[in-house]
Amino acid sequence: MTTDRTPVEISWFGALCDDDYEFLGAPDPALAASWPHCSDIVTAADRNGFDNVLLPSGYTLGIDSTAFAAAIATHTHDINLLLAVRMGEMWLPQLARQLASIDQFAGGRLTINIISSDIPGEALESEPRYQRTLEWMQVLRILLDGQPVDFHGEFVNLTLDPPRARTVDGRCPPFYFGGFSEAAKEVAAQEADVFLTWPDTVASVGETVAEMNARAERHGRSLITGLRTHVIVRETEAEALAAAEKLVSRLDDSIGAEIRARSLDSASAGVQRQAALRESASDDGFAEANLWTGIGRARSGAGAAIVGDPDQVLAKLEAYRAVGVEAFVLSGYTHRAECDLFAEHVLPRIDHAPLKPRWTRS
User: Fold this and answer.
1) How far is CA 261 from the centre of its chain?
2) Could you give the domains of the chain?
3) Nearest Cα residue to 210 out of 240, 232, 242, 185
4) N or C: fewer beta carbons within 10 Å in the chain?
5) Using an 8 Å Cβ cutoff, are 68 and 35 in contact?
6) If pLDDT is split at 50, 70 and 90, which confidence band does 6 have?
7) Contact 298, 309 (CB under 8 A)
8) 165 CB neighbour count, 10 Å cutoff
9) pTM for this one?
10) Kind and range of the H or E run holding 135
11) What is the dihedral of CA 315, 316, 322, 327, to 10 degrees?
12) pLDDT tens, residue by residue, 130-150
């Protein structure tokens, strides 16, 4: 176990958005998002000692993340709940009240993944959409800090006292946020606590960490960088490679393209970067050692996996850690099985703990 640095946060993935497969592109009704299936994944991650779990949000696919978070809060004990919330989708004061209530149900274990994609049925240009996201983050933080709001912006015009419902510690939970456009990066620099980036080469991730740190510093803030990636770990490298090949063995490229197009953020700058990474990979799909892009053939978001034996996977995580990554949001197919495999082979060898973001509003 590494002990010479600040512990990193290791999170798992709740698959609420119908993103669980034994074979990519071949849906299995038993793996579709549902309370039994997703609660099994999350409670397993809790038992296995993960620090946090991402509860993704979608409209077309899956089940509602906010309702799920409220329910699973009473079925988990130690794991934090990283609830994805789309900015603009719900009236702000009511959203603050819901989030504070869920944090109470969870005993203070709520964290918030801010999503800036279009609201279902709406198409808004990128820059105004991120302006709306910025205003919503600012006002949501004020309300969850238990402070009155007197805010008059382009998208929020609100003078209101906070709801009586408060988070357990009376403060806004940490905001996790990702995006690669200029507007998205500036929103993160100004208001996020954790900037989430998608899988890329170690050198490229290091450049992102440095860029985001510099942006945050210009706003008088500090920022934690997290990496959202898949993982395939087996006892031997050959077994891991075989598992990766099996995962895409039934994938038709036309079906993969259809899956990628379903997401509300399928044309975002981040998705385009994942496509470029996939196109730069070698014929076997590896962009660099142990970074396999095959998953991106059937996924619009994070499109690569760390693949290898336990030593290789640990070394890859440590390489990202060495360039400044302080949190990992991991997943693997199937999510329940890979949760157990990672917990058995890698998690005990990492010094990890829930994040404590360093920035607070003065």
Assistant:
1) 19
2) 9-230+320-349 (3.20.20.30)
3) 185
4) C
5) yes
6) confident
7) no
8) 17
9) 0.92
10) helix 126-144
11) -110
12) 999 999 999 999 999 999 999
